[in-house]
Design brief:
This protein has a domain of 134 residues: 2-Layer Sandwich (Heat Shock Protein 90), CATH 3.30.565. It is 74% helix and 7% strand. It is built from 24 helices and seven strands. Strands 2-4-5-7-6 form a five-stranded mixed sheet, with helices on one face. The chain has a two-stranded antiparallel ribbon with strand order 1-3. The chain is globular and about 115 Å long. The N terminus is likely disordered.
Length: 646
């Protein structure tokens, strides 16, 4: 469960393990800042502080990273800018912020390719491999790792070769190829032990423990974790100490030793709070919840599960689904059925299960009725037994009455039993329906995963191939060069379209807040492409929580894309304004430019306008076009009320 924590430690291992304590280095760098130094040197010191603070204080690391980036840009020092982006990528990944980490590494890679820095390119690709592995793009992760490994082996850089073997071992582990993962880990451990690399050795020992634990060989996992803990404590590495305690906690939970697990989690939490590693804090609280649940302390288990859920929500992580599911029996056991129902609904929404609320409600109600009637039945049987005893003591004159009572009780018992069987049958049918919907959801996720892993990786291969041709052959024919650039650009656009499609497929509901984030990203790219055009985008704050289906969200997004692209390509506009407002019980989406416009009665509608009109019509909306020569163009879509009652 904590392999991801170990994966990001690849970055930390780039520091010489024999170097002095990071805190001493930080003090030395701060002392240098207090003396007069050149702006270029100051930017370099800020960059170093970003790196060394990464394992001490993430907030401080980010603060120095932003200072370093701003100063490096003022100096126009591309090499330093690339390095700062790399440092920030590592810090954001340590914090659990995948998107920001990914963007910084891509920016670094672009600059290093431009500078033809082969070593830097290989190092950045290895870091991107970690990102791809974290988000489940294993083909892309393996491609990046392999590229980097080939380079570092060719230049006989044994240390970086060792780190890449470790990460490829992690990838094999996630793919379920445990023998290959264990083989690589043992090679890495042997090299690190021989070369005296203490902290990296502890990391790979953790990985070996994870492999053993995953295979159910719990007793064999513990010595690896214990060795790793002894080394990390001696080396005074807080992040590694915290992650090893976390590993031991989950191991003891798996061994049904919650009393031994709890102190491990508590020690890990103390360190994680100090370095403010949000993802670690969430996982630790989850582990404590599991431990206290095993001890039947539902109140404490609930408290820790809720803390873990709060942290996971801040990072928008998928683990929230499991936490909602874990909380259902906790609240039921505590007699808080409303809270149990709430988390059941949250779990259903997170999993995208399309089951009528009535069916789920009836299933829960049947379960409650079943439990109630079961208790009533037990009570009635006890009362019947008491009556039988009293009847035996009573005079013979009441034998007839006693017989009537017994007959009535038998009849009532049979009636209750028949009713109970009917309710059990109804509940089973409802659960079958839920399972069917779960299966459909899994199939949809598999389809989107196949699109991403197969088609996405193939498109990425095309881009890489075109870039390699450009770099390797120095093409002088402008027509061929332009054609290759067109292919590369078209393929990149196709990847973006594919990602948007997968995003829509994986979303049951899309809020305007989520849609707005996508539109903001698109406008940023448009602004970079057309620096002479001013773009604005506003959304009525009353609509932020309005809910759209995945089809509605995608059609609105595509319509805005098409309208903005038309304005950029054909209108000669200097400004493009996108507004989304709520008025007259309807949602109005307008894309307005101040360009040259055109006469509608003189122009035949092109595919772009027809596509926009069809997209809006498909989701029950109305499409409008207002334009005239010299008066700009306004494209509008009016949709039925989607605003939720809060």
């Amino acid at each position: 469960m904590v392999k991801k924590i170990l994966c990001l430690l690849f970055f930390i291992a780039a520091i010489d393990c024999n170097a002095q304590n990071p805190k001493k280095i930080i003090d030395t760098l701060k002392a240098e800042l207090s003396r007069p130094i050149t702006p270029e040197r100051k930017a370099a010191v800020y960059s170093d502080l970003t790196w060394y603070y990464a394992n001490v204080s993430i907030d401080s690391a980010l603060a120095y990273g932003k200072k370093a980036l701003a100063l490096a840009k003022v100096q126009n020092n591309e090499k330093l800018i690339a390095q700062v982006h790399s440092d920030l990528g590592a810090v954001y990944l340590n914090k659990g912020n995948i998107d920001d980490s990914y963007e910084n590494y891509l920016a670094c890679l672009k600059i290093r390719k431009k500078l033809k820095d082969a070593s830097g390119v290989a190092g950045t690709m290895s870091n991107l491999g970690v990102i791809y592995e974290r988000i489940g793009q294993r083909d892309s992760a393996m491609a990046n790792y392999t590229h980097a490994l080939d380079y570092f082996e060719s230049v006989k850089d044994h240390k970086k070769t060792d780190m890449l073997k470790n990460n490829i071992g992690l990838l094999y582990e996630k793919m379920g190829n445990y023998p290959q993962a264990e083989k690589l880990y043992k090679e890495v451990a042997a090299y690190r032990r021989a070369s005296g690399q203490k902290v990296p050795l502890a990391m790979v020992l953790n990985n070996l423990g994870n492999v053993k634990k995953t295979q159910g060989k719990l007793a064999e996992a513990e010595p690896y974790y214990r060795d790793a803990l002894e080394i990390s404590l001696k080396q005074n590495d807080p992040t590694l100490v915290s992650s090893t305690y976390l590993n031991l906690g989950f191991l003891y939970n798996a061994m049904d030793k919650p009393k031994e697990a709890i102190p491990m989690f508590e020690k890990s939490l103390e360190i994680a709070n100090t370095v403010k590693s949000n993802y670690d804090i969430a996982k630790i609280n989850n582990g404590l919840g599991i431990a206290y649940k095993k001890l039947n302390d539902d109140e404490k288990a609930k408290s820790y599960y809720l803390k873990a859920l709060g942290e996971m929500k801040k990072m928008d992580r998928r683990e929230t689904e499991r936490l909602h599911l874990d909380l259902i029996p906790i609240y039921s056991s505590l007699g808080m059925q409303d809270s149990a129902d709430y988390h059941l609904q949250k779990y259903k929404a997170a999993m995208g299960v399309k089951v009528e609320d009535r069916v789920l409600g009836e299933a829960m109600e049947l379960e409650k009725k079943y439990q109630t009637e079961k208790k009533e039945k037990e009570l009635l049987l006890k009362e019947a037994e008491a009556r039988r005893r009293n009847a035996l003591i009573a005079i013979l004159s009441i034998v007839v009455v006693f017989s009537l009572v017994v007959t009535y009780l038998i009849y009532r018992q049979q009636k209750l039993k028949n009713k109970q069987l009917q309710q059990e049958f109804t509940l089973k049918e409802a659960l079958k329906e839920i399972e069917t919907q779960n299966r459909l959801q899994r199939q949809r996720l598999e389809i989107s995963k196949d699109l991403h892993d197969n088609i996405g990786s193939q498109l990425t291969f095309i881009i890489s191939s075109v870039d390699n041709i450009n770099e390797a052959y120095h093409i002088e024919n402008p027509a061929i060069a332009n054609r290759l650039n067109t292919i590369s650009s078209f393929t990149r656009d196709t990847i973006l379209e594919l990602r948007d499609t997968i995003w829509a497929m994986n979303s049951k509901d899309i809020s305007f807040e989520q849609l707005g984030a996508r539109i903001f990203n698109f406008i940023d790219k448009a602004r970079q492409a057309k620096e002479d055009v001013a773009f604005t985008f506003t959304v009525d704050e009353n609509l932020e929580q309005a809910s759209l289906s995945s089809l509605e969200g995608m059609n609105i997004y595509r319509t805005i894309q098409e309208a903005v692209n038309n304005a950029i390509k054909h209108s000669a506009a200097s400004s493009v304004d996108i507004t989304i407002t709520y008025e007259n019980d309807a949602i109005r989406i307008s894309i307005r430019d101040n360009g040259k416009g055109f006469a509608k009665n003189e122009a035949s509608p092109g595919n772009g306008l027809l596509n926009m009109e069809k997209r809006i019509g498909d989701i029950g909306g109305r499409f409008e076009l207002a334009t005239a020569n010299g008066e700009g163009t306004t494209v509008s879509a009016i949709l039925p009320n989607k605003k939720e009652n809060t």
